[in-house]
Amino acid sequence: MDFDIRKIAALAAFDINDADISRFQCDMEEIANMVSELPELDGETPIPDAMELRSDCVQSYPADRSELMKNAPKAVNGCFAVPRTVEY
């Protein structure tokens, strides 16, 4: 299967240099081959134990807010500040 790595990179907003094109081409071909080897399913028969999920448990973390905010690139009024993603 042939992939247009530059187009995929552009759709993903990913900067790619010429030296990495062949490596990504090989990676995409390996992924496609792996997917083509997956078994066909009829969609009606349930898969027993298809996925084991871990149990979630809440644990407290002994840190105060000021210690956690030291990792924030930008904070406003004690909260993490992030770029606006929705324009109105």
**What letter string, H or E per element, gives the SSE order?**
HHHEE
The share of residues in extended strands comes to: under 5%
On the 0 to 100 scale, the average pLDDT is 86
End-to-end separation in angstroms reads 42 Å
DSSP, total strands? 2
Q: Largest sheet, described in full?
A: 2 strands, antiparallel
Number of helices: 3
Integer-rounded radius of gyration: 22 Å
Shape by Cα distribution:
flat
Main-sheet strand order equals 1-2
Structural class of the secondary elements?
Answer: mainly alpha
Classify the helix fraction into a percent range.
Answer: 25-40%
Low-confidence stretches: none
Structure write-up:
- The chain has 88 residues and is mainly alpha-helical.
- It has a domain at 1-38.
- The protein has three helices and two strands, in the order H-H-H-E-E.
- A two-stranded antiparallel sheet has the order 1-2.
- A hairpin with a 2-residue loop joins strand 1 and strand 2.
- It is flat and about 50 Å long.
- The two termini are 42 Å apart.
- 0% of the residues are buried.
Keywords:
mainly alpha, flat, 88 residues
Quickly describe the structure.
This protein has 88 residues and is mainly α. It is built from 3 helices and 2 strands.
